[in-house]
Amino acid sequence: MVRRSAETRVHVREHAFEGKGSITVRDLLRGPEEMYEKGRVFAHTTLQPGCSIGYHVHENESETYYILSGTAAFDDNGEKTTVHAGDVTFTPCGQGHGIENCGDEPLELIALILYR
Amino acid sequence: MVRRSAETRVHVREHAFEGKGSITVRDLLRGPEEMYEKGRVFAHTTLQPGCSIGYHVHENESETYYILSGTAAFDDNGEKTTVHAGDVTFTPCGQGHGIENCGDEPLELIALILYR
């Protein structure tokens, strides 16, 4: 099956985990059904400059971000760092993360949440 | 954990599924271990113009491609179509696919294989 770009489901989420501004999430797969119940998110997420996803912990699942473009301040389970295009962040079950676009361009990333 | 771009594992695969030329695969997660045994591939794959992944069937797993850039001829379980940046292809368990870069630029895609 091919799902054209215009057919993908896009939603805007305000203050995700008490973050700043909004994020735009393009679902690449539709929830657990299309993921054979192995996870719940496979998405292309965009944060405009100054926007963020607040810190949150993943229980019983991991989340991976793959940075496609832009620059971000990343909170890696309490440790602060900067991530750029090509970097991968992996937040295993029981750990937390948060991310903020600290650059001048949109921050584009692929997010994958897999169940433990 | 943050894995920097330069630390990601990149491998070149020749004639993937009897395809043309080679493909370059950047592993975003390392196999089933980092995927909690829920799948086996989460990768950024590049095909230069004229290169292809030959047609193959996925048993007991699905594979999703998310086209980041470029233009490709896609064989969707026997049906031929053209895909572009932003399109998602979903090959469920028991179906097959193949893809060829039919454009002038590199074809970049995210590949995700999840077990059934």
Question: What are the key terms here?
Answer:
four-stranded antiparallel beta sheet, homodimer, 3% helix, 59% strand, 116 residues, mainly beta
Please give a structural write-up:
2 copies of one chain form a homodimer. The first copy, chain A, is mainly β and 116 residues long. Chain A contains 1 helix and 11 strands, in the order βββαββββββββ. Chain A has one helix spanning 31-34, and strands spanning 2-3, 9-14, 22-27, 39-47, 52-57, 61-69, 71-76, 79-84, 88-91, 96-101, 107-115. In chain A, strands 2-3-4-11-6-9 form a 6-stranded antiparallel β-sheet. Chain A has a 4-stranded antiparallel β-sheet with strand order 5-10-7-8, with no helix packed on it. In chain A, a hairpin with a 2-residue loop joins strand 7 and strand 8. The longest helix of chain A is centred in the first third of the chain and has 4 residues, at 31-34. The first copy, chain A, is globular, with a radius of gyration of 14 Å. The N and C termini of chain A lie far apart (28 Å). Strand 9 (88-91) of chain A pairs antiparallel with strand 1 (2-3) of chain B. Chains A, B: Keywords: Metal-binding. Chains A, B: GO terms for molecular function: metal ion binding. Chains A, B: Residues 44-111 form the Cupin type-2 domain. Chains A, B: It comes from Candidatus Avichristensenella intestinipullorum. Chains A, B: InterPro entries: Cupin_2 (IPR013096), GPI/OXD (IPR051610), RmlC-like_jellyroll (IPR014710), RmlC_Cupin_sf (IPR011051).
